[in-house]
């Protein structure tokens, strides 16, 4: 790890680590939401984070995006960027995209127009016109449409999409900006079983091209994502309680005690 870290620019992934979190602590009015959280996510890794309500998952995501400032600890993106010293804007520009639980697409615009806005980078820019896109950009959006299963809905008003399709559109809006790290907060909440399955396929198809951190309570979805080999991290009281394969975490006595139940 370098001793001098930058506060803007692109992450350098020369050590195979996309995200490095060490001993992160956050308190709200004396209540400790994160109590020494440490974990790393590899470049191109798909990592699921689970844990009971109040475990600190959202607070952790808020620290990664600069929304919440930790009291102490370290967060590095790549080997060079010190996220604790970066503004929310610079963190987003460096390639960290976050999707919140509730979709926030522009309902009155078409699917394609939503993607155009995302590509423009500034979601307030309501005048991003199709004609202004370069051939490369149009190709990129076509690829995104295919990736998020919305090719046939391209000219549909976003407000008319199903809940699952709106979630995919929002993921597409993130992908339009080609983030290196995607943070996804309860992405399948409220989805039908079929939509959930397709979302798992989508995330698995993104593995390797992006690093993904998925916070989710739906254990069957987490099981599909984790398969036999990927790492799952279980948080409890603002710390890592257990980390390992799905099978290992699911059979961990402490995880059963505080989260999965008997
Ligand atoms: N702004 C805040 N002010 C005070 N307490 C907060 C604040 N944000 C979070 N907390 C508390 O910190 C703890 C961790 O909350 P957090 O939302 O990070 O948990 P979580 O793991 O995301 O839970 P859930 O699964 O319910 O979303 C909770 O006890 C919560 O009440």
UniProtKB/TrEMBL annotation:
ABC transporter domain residues: 19-262
Keyword Ubl conjugation found: no
InterPro entries: AAA+_ATPase, ABC_AA/LPS_Transport, ABC_transporter-like_ATP-bd, ABC_transptr_urea_ATP-bd_UrtD, BCA_ABC_TP_C, P-loop_NTPase
UniProt xrefs under Pfam families: ABC_tran, BCA_ABC_TP_C
Record keywords, A-Z: ATP-binding, Cell membrane, Membrane, Nucleotide-binding, Transport
Gene3D superfamilies assigned: P-loop containing nucleotide triphosphate hydrolases (3.40.50.300)
Molecular-function GO terms, alphabetical: ATP binding
UniProt name for this protein: Urea ABC transporter ATP-binding protein UrtD
């Amino acid at each position: 790890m370098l001793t001098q870290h930058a506060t803007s620019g692109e992450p350098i992934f020369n050590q195979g680590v996309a995200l490095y979190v060490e001993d992160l602590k956050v308190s709200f009015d004396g209540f400790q939401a994160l109590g020494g959280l440490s974990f790393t996510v590899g470049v191109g890794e798909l990592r699921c984070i689970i844990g009971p309500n109040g475990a600190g998952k959202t607070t952790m995501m808020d620290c990664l995006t600069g929304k919440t400032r930790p009291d102490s600890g370290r967060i590095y993106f790549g080997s060079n960027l010190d996220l604790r010293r970066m503004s929310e804007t610079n963190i987003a520009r460096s390639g960290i995209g976050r999707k919140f639980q509730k979709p926030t697409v522009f309902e009155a615009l078409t699917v394609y127009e939503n993607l155009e806005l995302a590509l423009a980078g500034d979601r307030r820019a309501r005048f991003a016109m199709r004609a202004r896109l370069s051939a490369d950009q149009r190709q990129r959006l076509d690829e995104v449409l295919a990736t998020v299963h919305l090719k046939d809905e391209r000219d549909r008003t976003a407000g008319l999409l199903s809940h699952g399709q709106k979630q995919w559109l929002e993921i597409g809006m993130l992908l339009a900006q080609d983030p290196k790290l995607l943070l996804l907060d309860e992405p399948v909440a409220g989805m039908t079983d079929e939509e959930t399955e397709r979302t798992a396929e989508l995330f698995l198809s993104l593995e390797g091209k992006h690093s993904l951190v998925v916070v989710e309570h739906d254990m069957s979805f987490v099981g599909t994502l984790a398969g036999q080999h990927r790492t799952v991290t279980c948080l409890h009281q603002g710390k890592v309680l257990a980390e390992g394969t799905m099978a290992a975490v699911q059979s961990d006595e402490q995880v059963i005690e505080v989260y999965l139940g008997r």
